[in-house]
Amino acid sequence: MSIHPLTVIPAPYRPIPNSLLRNGVGKARLISLSAALPLVERDVLEPLSRRVSLAHGETLYGQDEPACSVFNVTSGALRLYRILPDGRRQVTGFAFPGDFLGLSLLDRFAVSADALGSATACRFERLAFKDLICGHPGLMMHLHEITGQELSRAKDMMMLLGRRTAEEKIGAFLVGLQERYVRIGLSAVTLELPMGRLDIADHLGLTIETVSRTLSRLDRDGCLLIVPGGVRLLDQARLARMSAH
Amino acid sequence: MSIHPLTVIPAPYRPIPNSLLRNGVGKARLISLSAALPLVERDVLEPLSRRVSLAHGETLYGQDEPACSVFNVTSGALRLYRILPDGRRQVTGFAFPGDFLGLSLLDRFAVSADALGSATACRFERLAFKDLICGHPGLMMHLHEITGQELSRAKDMMMLLGRRTAEEKIGAFLVGLQERYVRIGLSAVTLELPMGRLDIADHLGLTIETVSRTLSRLDRDGCLLIVPGGVRLLDQARLARMSAH
DNA sequence: GACGGACTTTGCGCTGGATCAAGGACCCCA
DNA sequence: TGGGGTCCTTGATCCAGCGCAAAGTCCGTC
Predict the structure, then answer these.
(1) Residue B170 belongs to what domain range?
(2) What is the pLDDT of residues B28-45, one digit of tens each?
(3) Which of A148, A235, B140, B214 sits 20 to 30 Å CA-CA off B150?
């Protein structure tokens, strides 16, 4: 049902787990930091960093843990979330190569972070990082701006969670993900979804069944195509309309 | 129904609009900046500021407008929100004395801000503000930390919007407001609610009817007392439990 | 190549909160 | 003291999305 027999699907549509999110480990750090920062700032930060590797499902840090590090994701994808005592979970976002984690430099992490598939990151010791940027106002300002953009996206998210329907949530999620992928140089048509349906549900304030049903319906309507490991966006215009601000 | 005849209510419970939120205009700026910042940082910022006064409902700035100013609220309360083309609204938060607005220093405002009742703020010209803090790394770091706290609260809000029931939303809203009031030296028991039911609804992702019904039920259950212009929290323990993280 | 486990899809009945509709309280101003 | 506007409350009904249950799919492993 999800792949129509007459549909031409350009390779790769086979589930190569996280394939598009792994760009070769050697270059990853370079790619990542250059995407987010000017050369000169990268040169300042680079010497402080140490590599961290995570296997599928491994935790990078836990909510409320003392935040002694700042991270920059270099490959793979991470899930950021909070959990209530009774098990209800809110996935506040996903992190991809180039994203900073813990950049607000608070004493404790605001969320937990774990890996979807395998992932790597640069770790910076927080106090050293703080001292360093204190000596580089331009860099600090740049990092502040990145935090400001995250805050702005958080407000988009509030609107999404508080005032939009299931279909709009799914649409906005997919279009937003596509935009982020394009910005880091990944496919714009076939979206890899390294997170599961349950992660998407807990991100959008829905249940896994509603996510599944809504995706199925969009597939049936020819709006998108569910492929193993992800989704192909077909009717971009309609998706854009349903996720429009 | 909302005020039980046998309940002793300490004055003031009469609706003095925004009474507790107006602390005398002359001292307001001092109070505000001293609350948020150390003395030395206040002395740096103070000379750049100009007073702005807003009447009830007046707009301080609009979403997507070029952000040429940073503000620090000195009296009253503001509503921060986004609106979708079809009229659906998400109130992303409320601002009280001491709060900064536009601190992420992006080119455009992420939300609209208007006054609930009358309000005043300090206005800083954005570029001058930026230049100034570039020369004061400690101050910039402090402001960055404030932004980080706002981001953390935004994530609380996502959890609230995505995963909690109407009653939990109301409970968490009231307890959170109380905590903020305490921090700026206002009453801890009788909460003034300068925003209307519709503002609360649009903040919590509910309808005005659900907000009204839920408050009525909590009143009936002896959990709180609806008084003109606000609410008195009676069963703090139960409220804390229902809003617990 | 078939067994087991994790994830996804689908059907069905249910419910929390939305929607529609009607009053009620309060306030400003005449 | 009364009339009109705004906001709030309450009741009745509806429905989008939830919760449960049962297949179905995919994948790794032995």
Answers:
(1) 165-243
(2) 344 455 456 676 777 777
(3) B214
